[in-house]
Amino acid sequence: MNDPERIGTHLTPEEAKEIHKGFMGTFTLYVAIAVVAHALVWFDKPWFPI
């Protein structure tokens, strides 16, 4: 029950790294889509003229 590899969590460091990798990939895709969406809206109706 007291596994030193699982202190403070129910994941091993390898499992945590795998989950983090998946999260970062999904987050990066989400941010990329948001940037493209904002750029398309700005090209249509610029809210901050440059």
From TrEMBL:
Residues 14-48 form the Antenna complex alpha/beta subunit domain. It is a single-pass type II membrane protein. The chain crosses the membrane at residues 23-43. It is found in: Cell inner membrane. Coiled coil: none annotated. Keywords: Antenna complex, Bacteriochlorophyll, Cell membrane, Chlorophyll, Chromophore, Light-harvesting polypeptide, Magnesium, Membrane, Metal-binding, Transmembrane, Transmembrane helix. InterPro entries: Antenna_a/b, Antenna_beta_CS, Antenna_beta_dom_sf, LHB-1/5, Light-harvesting_complex. Its main location: membrane. Belongs to the antenna complex beta subunit family. NCBIfam families: pufB_517_ASD. Antenna complexes are light-harvesting systems, which transfer the excitation energy to the reaction centers. This is Light-harvesting protein. It comes from Erythrobacter rubeus.
